[in-house]
From TrEMBL:
Domain of life the protein comes from: Bacteria
One Pfam short name: ODP
PANTHER family assigned: ANAEROBIC NITRIC OXIDE REDUCTASE FLAVORUBREDOXIN
Organism of this sequence: Sphingosinicella xenopeptidilytica
Name of the protein: MBL fold metallo-hydrolase
Residues annotated as domain ODP: 49-186
Entry's transmembrane regions: none
Length: 263
């Protein structure tokens, strides 16, 4: 599939200290847009990308809010695609500043939007954190956006966070992976190369994954979806054998669990 890089007018730039950062928008699947901001003061020298994903439909959904500091960039980029007052749903992978730090700024800018999250996530955090009551969705519930269908899949502690979840968009077979497959650097919007080695290199750097006996089975369960596209929050998204990539990642985490020292 040919990627569509959005016109230069929608590449939004902002001064951050002495650096100029920008949010770049790419349509990575029909009606699914990656909004990517590369910063160099995280994981230098390669830096780190913070990616949000907009699903354009009758009821548009934003996955990942981003940190508050990036809200001016990301909201301007979203507004170039759809008026903010048309945004209907907001969700994220787990409770963390880069996932939901700007949540209430989005709720203020998009008066018709509502956070949609698992009952667990709502009960332990979002009911208190969000300025408007969220909508709780059951495990494996499908939200019909009108032209797109999004399934909510809890993944406790994968990669981290009790309330962790991923989203699966059925019409494009896109799995929104959150922090699974995190990579450093500023690669292409979408790659067809093996992303497991770069993901494990980032794991070696950050140690961010909660590696438990349930990590590999959870990833293998996601592989049963046979996603054609993995939309990844940090780093390049992946097009190709998503099931194979998930199983390979599961194998690697299982190996690390089995060789972990006993303390």
């Amino acid at each position: 599939m040919q990627l569509r890089q959005i016109s230069e007018k929608s590449v939004v730039r902002l001064c951050r200290g002495e650096a100029i950062i920008e949010t770049r928008t790419t349509e990575i699947a029909p009606g699914i847009y990656r909004l990517s901001t590369h910063v160099t003061d995280v994981a230098p020298p390669a830096g780190f990308t913070f990616n949000q994903f907009l699903i354009l439909a009758d009821q548009p959904l934003l996955f990942h809010c981003g940190p508050r500091s990036l809200f001016p960039l990301v909201s301007s980029s979203v507004a170039a695609l759809v008026p903010l007052d048309r945004l209907r749903w907001i969700s994220f992978g787990h409770i963390e500043a880069d996932e939901c730090g700007a949540m209430n700024l989005w709720l203020e800018a998009a008066p018709h939007a509502q956070v949609v999250y698992s009952p667990l996530g709502c009960n332990i955090s979002v009911n208190d954190l969000a300025d408007r009551p969220p909508r709780a969705v059951a495990e494996e519930e499908v939200l019909d956006l009108g032209g797109k269908r999004v399934r909510f899949i809890p993944t406790p502690h994968v990669p981290h966070g009790w309330e962790a979840q991923v989203l699966y968009e059925e019409t494009t077979a896109t799995l929104f992976c959150g922090d699974v497959f995190t990579q450093v650097g500023d690669g292409e919007p979408v790659t067809e190369s093996n992303i497991v080695p770069t993901a494990m290199a980032a794991e070696d750097m950050f140690g961010a994954t909660s590696i438990t006996p349930l990590t590999a089975p959870t990833l293998r369960k996601l592989a049963e979806l046979a996603p054609a596209l993995l939309a990844i929050m940090h780093g390049s998204s992946f097009r190709g054998d998503g099931a194979g990539a998930l199983r390979s990642l599961a194998d690697e985490y299982e190996r690390r669990l089995n060789v972990a020292p006993v303390r």
